[in-house]
Amino acid sequence: MGVWSVDIRSIILSIPGLVVGVSFHEFAHALAADRLGDPTPRMEGRLTLEPWMHFDIVGTVLLLLYGFGWAKPVHVNPFNFRRPKRDMLLVALAGPLMNLAVAVGCWMVVILLSVVHSGELLLQVLRICASINIGLAAFNILPVPPLDGSKVLSLVRSPRMEQILQALETYGPLLLLLLLISGRIGSLIGGIASFFARITFSLAATALNPLLNLITRWWG
What we know:
Layout: H1 8-35, H2 40-43, H3 57-66, H4 84-115, H5 120-140, H6 159-182, H7 184-219
Helix pairs in contact: 1-4, 1-5, 4-5, 4-7, 5-7
């Protein structure tokens, strides 16, 4: 997850990005499952962007204070899918991809507001929102259960991989805790997040380039 100082101002500025990031992430899981044939998320009220349907109180507090936490998991029944392994992977990847899409949107607004010299506070909130969403994507893409990235491993069909997956399902949460305590998870996520930040900013700038040219000519 994103890295920021634990102080009141930082926490307050992080709240919009956290609300958007978690809500959109879990909604994306629910929407993907629904579109692929599983009504479970819809029946449980998770096919919504309403934050209170997705937030876990303890996980949210830890996320705000330490940059590491969790939301309510979106329950999915793979037996409702036509191709369970493939569809479970698509559902899992929908969350991180949605976070990256939100980051691109934030960067686009940041670029536009920077051109017209808008307020610094709003720019800061948008940058933090982009950072949090990039951090959420980077963290959840790790191939460690119960994170979304672990679903990629299930596509590798071999007896050896089945043993590895069973071990990871059992000890994945403990492994994550050890990585957190050792401090190594920060450097691991940081490398992935830096890559995602470059990609999302580049996509935002490329998408806005024609409009920026017009704004620059008119504003100049």
